[in-house]
Design a protein that fits this description.
This protein is globular. The protein has a single domain, classed as PhyR, sigma-like (SL) domain (Butyryl-CoA Dehydrogenase, subunit A, domain 3, Up-down Bundle). By secondary structure, the chain is mainly alpha-helical. Strands 1-2 form a two-stranded antiparallel sheet.
Length: about 210
């Protein structure tokens, strides 16, 4: 089924499965060059995911560093058929959840940060409109409950399958799909006000 959502473009990994399995094999042997490849592939994506969840650049950077430390520490125990994206995003999300529980983080009182990629504009008017849209999307996304926000980020932004996102979030595939639908509905509702504002629409297959 094809759904339309107001969200940033889906990010698909350029890493094919054969390459991924080879990287996992090399990671298990402690190959630092393999770690560098994985770092280059996922670092920016993991940071954006964490920052949009926790809404603090400093805290996101701390959790990102801990995520990579976990990979270094546990690389030797990876299963040969490990899928790197679900593994890394699971670690990142678990660290985020643990942080929220330990610090009793009140998200409503944490300043948000804008991390959506800038939209090229050919004129000052278009640039202003693009910037306003980015702010509206960020505000709408930040207003979602974490369970809806993470579902939208994992599937619509990171391009993970709903089944993979469900595994990361520790819920059933049916529950994840419900959260995803609810997240899209809530986001679309917020972006419809004002009704004549431009909306970025991207086709996302789920």
């Amino acid at each position: 089924m094809t759904l339309v959502t107001a969200i940033a473009p889906v990010r698909y990994s350029c890493m094919d499965r054969e390459c991924e399995l080879e990287l996992v094999r090399r990671l298990k042997t402690g190959d630092t060059a393999a770690f560098d490849v994985v770092y280059d592939e996922f670092n920016a994506r993991l940071f954006t995911f964490l920052a949009r969840l926790i809404r603090s650049r400093e805290r996101a950077e701390d959790l990102l560093e801990e995520t990579w430390l976990r990979l270094v520490t546990h690389a030797g125990r990876l299963q040969p058929d490990t899928r790197l994206a679900p593994w890394l995003f699971t670690v990142a999300r678990n660290l985020y959840v643990s942080h929220c529980r330990s610090r009793m983080l009140e998200e409503a009182h944490v300043d948000g940060i804008g991390l959506w990629p800038p939209v090229p504009a050919s004129s000052p008017f278009e640039q202003t409109a693009a910037n306003e849209l980015e702010v509206r999307i960020e505000t709408a996304l930040a207003g979602l409950r974490p369970i809806y926000r993470e579902a939208l980020l994992l599937v619509a932004v990171e391009g993970l399958a709903p089944s993979e996102a469900a595994e990361i979030c520790g819920v059933s595939a049916a529950t994840l799909r419900q959260r995803l639908k609810r997240a899209r509905d809530l986001l679309a509702r917020q972006l419809e006000n004002p009704p004549n504002a431009p909306v970025l629409l991207h086709e996302v297959k789920t």
